[in-house]
Amino acid sequence: MKKGLLPVIFLLALFFPLSIAIAGEEGQARPGGQPFGGQTSVSGVPWTGSYAIVKGDTLWDISKARLSDPFAWPRIWKKNQFIHNPNLIYPGQVIKLPQGVTIAPPRAAKKEEVPPPVEKSETGPFVSKGTTLMLKPRVSESKIITIPPPPTRIPVATKEAVLEAGFIEKDGATTRSIEGSPTPQSLYGLFDELYVKTDGVKAGDRFIIGRYEGNVEDPGTGDNLGRMVKVLGVLKIEGPRDGFMLGRVTTAFTDIKTSDLLFPYQEPVIVYEPVPPNPKAYGVSGDIAALRDGMKNASQSDMLYIDRGAKDGVLPGDTFVVERPGGYAKTDLPIERPVPLPAVKTGLIQVVSVREHTAAAKVVDSDWPLQAGYRIFYSRPK
C-alpha cells in the first residue's frame, strides 16, 4: 500500500463513527414511525397549526413547548389578533401558530443514552459529548430583549354604562311614540320588533328608548332643570313594513312598553384613564341635583346628576369633590341664629355623560351617603 494513502485512511477511520452517530440521531423515529423534526405535537399527533388553550397556559409556555423558543411569544400574539392582552388568555380559546415553524420536542433519553457530563475545564465554542460535536450556545444577556405587553386602557365607564346612566332632558325635547309591534305583547325586550312612524325616519337610524320619571329642580336656585329620563334600551330602524318603519331592540336594560318614548340617539363618549386636566372646568362648582331611580342616598358606583354641563365646560371624565353640610354648633348661649359648622369633604364623583345644562356622574368614593343638594367642586386629576 502506498504511503500517500495512509493519512486518508486514518482520517476516514477517525470521522466514520462521528457520521454514523449524527445520522443515527437525525434518522431516529418517533413512536409510530415518524422521524424527529416532523410537523407533530408533543404527544406525537400530527400538528395542525392550532392549539386549544387549557387552564394554566401562558403564551410564554406555549411558545416554549410549540416553537422551542419562549421568547417567540410575540409572534403567536401577533398571529391571533383577538387576544387584546397577552397576559389574559382563557381555557377553550383556540390560537394559531405562525406558519413555517418546525415542531421538534426533545425525545426522552434512556439511561444508557444520557451523555457524559461536561467537564468544567472544557472551553471554546465546541463541547465534546462522546462522538458527537455540539455547538456550545453563547447568549449575551445584553441581546435578550423582553417585549412588555401593551398597557391596558381602562375606560371611565363602558358604552352600556353611559347609556344606562340616563339623563335630565330640558322641557320641549323632541320625542317619538312607539306605535305598536308585529307581535302584540305586554312587555318587550332584546331583539323584539317595534313600529315607528315613517316621517323623517330612515333605515339605520337609532333611538333611545326611555320614560320620564319626574321633574328635577336645581337645589341652588330652585329653577326647573328638566325631566329625568330613565333609559330602557336602544332601537335600531331596519326599514319599512306595514305602513310603518320597523325597528329592532338592539340593547335592553329592562322591560319595554309601547307607552314608552323614543329620544334622539346620542353616541356615548368613552374616555380612558388617566383623564387629563380640563382647564375649562377650573373653578366650576354646583350641586348634586338628583339621584337615579328615585334613591335618597347614593354610595360607591351609584349614578347621580349634577346641575353643571357642557355650557359650564364640563367634559366626560371630569371629577368633582363632594361636600356635605357640617351642621350647626351646640351652644348654651341665647342666640337668635344657630352657628353653622364648616362643610366636610365626603366623596368624589366622576362624570360619565354630559348634556347642555346637566351631567350624569358615578360615585367613585364616599365615606358618607351622598344626597341631592350636596355641593360639588371640580377636582384636577393628580
Question: Any chance you could write out the topology, listing elements then pairs?
Answer:
Blueprint: H1 5-27, E1 50-52, H2 59-66, H3 73-79, E2 94-96, E3 126-129, E4 132-135, H4 159-164, E5 167-169, E6 176-177, E7 193-196, E8 206-217, E9 224-241, E10 244-252, E11 261-264, E12 285-291, E13 303-306, E14 319-324, E15 344-354, E16 359-366, E17 375-379
Antiparallel strand pairs: 1-2, 3-4, 5-9, 6-11, 7-10, 8-9, 8-11, 9-10, 12-13, 12-17, 13-16, 14-15, 14-17, 15-16
Helix pairs in contact: 2-3
What this model shows, in words?
It is a single chain. Residues 8-46, 100-107 and 118-131 have low confidence and may be disordered. This protein has 382 residues and is of the alpha+beta class. The protein contains 4 helices and 17 strands. Helix 2 (59-66) packs across helix 3 (73-79). Strand 9 (224-241) and strand 10 form a beta hairpin. The N and C termini lie far apart (93 Å). The chain folds into 3 domains: 36-106, LysM domain (Membrane-bound Lytic Murein Transglycosylase D, Chain A, Roll), CATH 3.10.350; 159-264, Beta Barrel (Thrombin, subunit H), CATH 2.40.10; 279-379, FlgT, C-terminal domain (Thrombin, subunit H). It has helices spanning 5-27, 59-66, 73-79, 159-164; strands at residues 50-52, 94-96, 126-129, 132-135, 167-169, 176-177, 193-196, 206-217, 224-241, 244-252, 261-264, 285-291, 303-306, 319-324, 344-354, 359-366, 375-379. Strands 5, 6, 7, 8, 9, 10 and 11 form a 7-stranded antiparallel sheet that branches. Strands 12-13-16-15-14-17 form a 6-stranded antiparallel beta barrel. Strands 1-2 form a two-stranded antiparallel ribbon.
